[in-house]
Amino acid sequence: MKIVNWILAALAAAGVIFCAVTAVSYYTFPAEDYTRQISDLETETEQVKADTDALERQLAERAEEIKEDLSRAGDEGARVQEEIARLDGEIASRRETAAALQERVDMLDNIYENTLALREEYAGKIRQLEEKIVAGESDAKICYWTFDDGPTYVTNSFLEAAAQYGAYVTFFTSREANSSDYDDTEETERGILRAEAMGGHSIQNHTYSHQYEIYGNVYGKGIDSFREMVEQQDQWVYDSTGFKPGIFRFPGGSAWAFAKLPKEEMLAVLDELGYVWVDWSCDIFDNSVANPDGYTAYNTAMYEIRTMNIAMILSHDWNAATLFAFQRAVPQLQEQGYLFLPLFPESWCIGNTKILFS
Ligand SMILES: [Zn+2]
Q1: For residue 295, how far is its CA from the centre of ligand 1 (angstroms)?
Q2: In angstroms, what is the span from residue 290 Cα to ligand 1's centroid?
Q3: Which of 111, 113, 123, 292 has its CA 20 to 30 A from that of 300?
Q4: Cβ distance 298 to 332 under 8 Å?
Q5: Looking at the structure, do residues 209 and 334 belong to the same domain, yes or no?
């Protein structure tokens, strides 16, 4: 078996484990439920331990009584012996219960750290594969299909399609970008973000407001406003999923952003907030101005990606035409050897994916 196949097998295994643990983590988040659950269990554990201690004291008293009152020998003595044996059994069973409860408390206490450790392992394996591809040591190809501006009412259909084809994708999310959706309540959006996380996809930051116009609050109102828009989305994703994003995509792309605010200042803000940033290498032009039909968007994707071993596609999960393009392109690209993987901050793409104007 070639080394690349080993890496691919490990990658697949790590992906499955990561998704499973992410799903488990989801049920123990958000923090309120999680903390209450641990606190309940801790109370229960303490209670069982206290009961066990009380029983032990009772048992010791009984034993003392036997020693003190020899007249209780005979039938009475046997009865007391029996009672002591029963209490002994009860203590053993309570100890077992306490140990099992303690184990569950420990597991819940560490599940978030365990998930993060698995995430890092998974990202490390993807990075390893990227390096093999870049060095020409692997025939594998990677497609990072990214969706900007969601979640929207179309997002669930993208998630279904991704699950159908075993594809992992990346969402550059923005709370307010599609606030005119027919059902854009906080609860609905949180639900979609969680579904993205449970599907093993990457959820990243595309600012809270997405107002990237000249007077918008992303670039038009100074660096502090820019920072606020990044921080707010960061918090929104964390509160909704329990995971902090680490990759930023500038609304309008980096070229537009750097023309509006000093590049160094923006990069310093991102760095300070723990972010790297990325553009894209393939644009399927599914924006509202070009507004292509599904077949055109599909053709653009297939044409643009043809020379790339590691490609990053820019698209939007508010566009139903894009859904058609995605459903059609993914199985064909998989046949050509492309793996659809979630983007992590450790990726080779960071700093290497320039906007290509083809
Ligand atoms: Zn956008």
Answers
A1: 22
A2: 14
A3: 123
A4: no
A5: yes
